[in-house]
Amino acid sequence: MGRFTRNNRVVAITKILMENPNKIIGLNRFTELLDAAKSTISEDILIVRETLEKLNLGKVETVSGAAGGIKFLTDISKEETLEFIKDLCLLLEDKSRIVPGNFIYMTDVMYNPHIIGKAGTILASFYNNFQVDCVVTVETKGIPLAYEVAKRLGVQLVIVRRDNKVTEGPTVTINYVSGSSGRIQNMSLSKKSLPKGSRCLFIDDFMKAGGTALGIMDLLKEFDSELIGIGVLVDNIETNKKLIGEYVSIVEFLGINEEGKALINPSKCFK
Predict the structure, then answer these.
(1) Chain region(s) in the chain for CATH 1.10.10.10
(2) Strand bridging mode 98-99 / 103-104
């Protein structure tokens, strides 16, 4: 194998960093892989860092210490975020999305890789510095968004189930009260899914009163773990009394007007 040019090294370093977000990578890995001196690799990393930050594609941070190195953090510009949110509002306001019962049809949105990928980047960027250990969601519609957030934060995705599954082994099950309907429901999580003492981020597609998020908080206590943040795609602000405190949403649902059109606004978190 011939020697690599600077362009070759920059491409390789960028790919490795972006495929391993939030993971500390020592310079030795690059020097061995690319057969170059540390001083050379340091110069290459400076080019990668400046280019990514200039284009708002992410940040490269230096971690000092014996186990130090560099790590890549997902990022997105304010302009790109606002443009995405504006387009999402227009998409969800389409009259044809209203189905019987005055619900918004969102299945196609939740399974669209481009939309959910960008939404995942926005939420992950918000929680970059929260030292998240796991992203938690409840089956099923929130899974794609939660997966994208976990991928960009470089952490494990944990899926809480509505019903016990034999293949999950021993589980912890709790009852919780739905914030919107007031009905008692249950959620289960395998004992093998979540290490004790984990700092968890809850991600979901839609929030009404926050009963599910409150249930997640109680479930995590059974694992001696902590809920450090909540992120949702759509927040129903028609529900005035939320059961939870701080959370991040991307857009807000204000109800349906007389013309049968959903009223969707950018969340105050991103205005």
Answers:
(1) 6-73
(2) antiparallel
Which residue, 118, 126, 204, is CA-closest to 159?
A: 204
Model pTM above 0.70:
yes
Q: Which residues have CB under 8 Å from 219's CB, separation 6+?
A: 160, 172, 174, 187, 189
Q: pLDDT digits over 210-244, tens only?
A: 999 999 999 999 999 999 999 999 999 988 788 88
**Distance between CA atoms of 149 and 143, rounded to whole angstroms?**
10
Segments in the chain forming alpha helices (H): 6-19, 27-34, 38-54, 78-92, 107-110, 113-126, 143-153, 211-221
Which CATH architecture best describes the domain 78-270?
Answer: 3-Layer(aba) Sandwich (3.40)
Distance, CA of 50 to CA of 29 (rounded, Å): 21
User: Residues spanned by CATH 3.40.50.2020 within the chain?
Assistant: 78-270
CA–CA separation, 112 vs 246, rounded Å? 27
Architecture of the domain whose range is 6-73? Orthogonal Bundle (1.10)
Q: Structure tokens of 122?
A: 């926005």
- Residue 73 in 3-state DSSP? strand
